[in-house]
What we know:
The structure holds two protein chains of two kinds. By secondary structure, chain A is mainly beta. Chain A has strands spanning 9-13, 18-23, 31-38, 45-50, 55-56, 61-64, 70-75, 84-92, 107-112. Chain B is an all-beta fold. In chain B, the strands form two sheets. In chain B, strands 2, 4, 5, 6, 9, 10 and 11 form a seven-stranded mixed sheet that branches. A four-stranded antiparallel sheet of chain B has the order 1-3-8-7, with no helix packed on it. Chain B is globular. The termini of chain B are far apart. The mean pLDDT of chain B is 93. The A-B interface holds A 32, 34, 42-46, 49, 85, 87, 91, 93, 95, 98-106 and B 4, 31, 33, 35, 41-45, 48, 50, 55-56, 91, 93, 95, 97, 99-110.
Amino acid sequence: DAKTTQPNSMESNEEEPVHLPCNHSTISGTDYIHWYRQLPSQGPEYVIHGLTSNVNNRMASLAIAEDRKSSTLILHRATLRDAAVYYCILRVFYYNQGGKLIFGQGTELSVKP
Amino acid sequence: DTGVSQDPRHKITKRGQNVTFRCDPISEHNRLYWYRQTLGQGPEFLTYFQNEAQLEKSRLLSDRFSAERPKGSFSTLEIQRTEQGDSAMYLCASSPWTSGSSYEQYFGPGTRLTVT
Lengths: 113, 116
C-alpha cells in the first residue's frame, strides 16, 4: 500500500483557515485520496475524498497537486469542534478490492480560542 | 437509522477470559469492517465482510479472534483467552458498495476493551 506522510501536529486559531498537508509521493493512478478525522473518544469520521480534481463539500476542501504527489485539506474557518486527529489515506479501488482503510499516525490539530 | 452502533461501549475482563463484541451497521450497507486502535495510534484493519461472507482477514487477526456476520446484518467479534496486549479500542465501520465506486466508511463509537 502506498504511504502518506503528515506532520504530527499543527495549531490553529479559531475562525482562521487551516491547511493540513499530506505527501504521497508513491501514489498510483488508481489511488483515491481520502481524509478522515477522529475527535476525542469517537470513531473516525469521513471528511472528503478525491482522485485528481480539487473537491469541496460542506466540511472542507481538498486541493490535489497536479502530479498528485501531495494534497492539502483545507478547513476554511476552524472552530473548537475541529480539534481532532486528521488522517490522510490512499485507498485503492479496483473492482474486487475490499476498500479497507490503512491509517497512518495522522496530524493532531489543536484550535486555540 | 442513527448510524453504526456497537455494544458494549466498555468491557473490562480478566486475562484468559473470552469476550464478544457486537456491531450493528447502517441497515442498507453490505460491507462491514472491523478495526483495532491502541492508544496514540491510528486504527488498524482486522477484517471485513461483504454481506455474510468474510472476504479478508489481516495477519493481526490471530486464531484467538473470530468474526461472524451470520445473516449479513449485525456482526460479532469474539476474542478467546484474552491477553493484556488485546487491550484496545475495537471499531466497527460499514459502507455501501457497488463495483467501481469509492464509498466512505461510517464508523461506530467503538468498544474499549481493558484486559487486567
